[in-house]
Write a structure and sequence with these properties.
Elements lengths: L6 H18 L4 H30 L5 H23 L4 H18 L2 E3 L7 E3 L2 H22 L4 H29 L6
Antiparallel strand pairs: 1-2
Helix pairs in contact: 1-2, 2-3, 2-6, 3-4, 4-5, 5-6
């Protein structure tokens, strides 16, 4: 199944966004912490967009759950890209939009797709996504504080720390699970 967003286009859009976020937000210093956090998130979300779109292509869309997941994924990618590009000029608003897109995805996507499994459509609702939802909510609160000029340096540092910890846990857990299953790839 081919969508309006194909892998090369998605890769290019997220790569340009990641470079632009840092390019436009190197100064002042409190912007740099938020920009670094958002750039790391942009790289991760670009990767996840590619994974989700690839998984969708490998599973027929005749299942309503897959159709819903496909729609939610496309809406999320669109909102993320709008947020990442908006962040070039309005760092706080762009970051908030990206986090809102994550809240949307993690509440609207009720499944995860595993094309190679016997049961490729696995239920994965809000309860299973609650740690990510909590992290997104805390990060959104920090962005709101940062945007309102409240403790900008501290909130920027905390936001960067949350993103780094989130990504470290995410990729360490993937690598650990892959190794446990005998797979060498994350």
């Amino acid at each position: 199944m081919q969508t309006a967003l194909d892998n090369p286009l998605v890769s290019i859009l997220f790569t340009v966004a990641a470079v632009g976020i840092l390019g436009w937000n190197l100064q002042p210093l409190e912007s740099l912490g938020v920009a670094l956090a958002l750039m790391l998130l942009c790289i991760d979300q670009g990767r996840m967009a590619l994974v989700d779109l690839t998984n969708i292509r490998q599973i027929p869309l005749n299942d309503p759950q897959v159709e819903r997941f496909h729609t939610v994924t496309l809406i999320t990618i669109t909102l993320e890209l709008l947020g990442f590009y908006l962040a070039w000029m309005q760092l706080g608003l762009g970051t908030a939009l990206v986090l809102i897109s994550q809240l949307f995805f993690n509440t609207a996507a009720k499944v995860q797709l595993y094309p190679g499994n016997l049961e490729p459509i696995q239920p994965f609702g809000v309860k299973e996504r609650s740690p990510v939802l909590i992290a997104n909510t805390v990060a959104l609160g920090l962005v709101a504080l940062w945007q309102s000029n409240q403790l900008r340096q501290i909130t920027a540092a905390l936001l960067l720390a949350i993103v780094v910890v989130y990504l470290a846990l995410k990729y360490l857990a993937i690598n650990t699970a892959a190794t446990a299953n005998g797979d060498e790839r994350p």
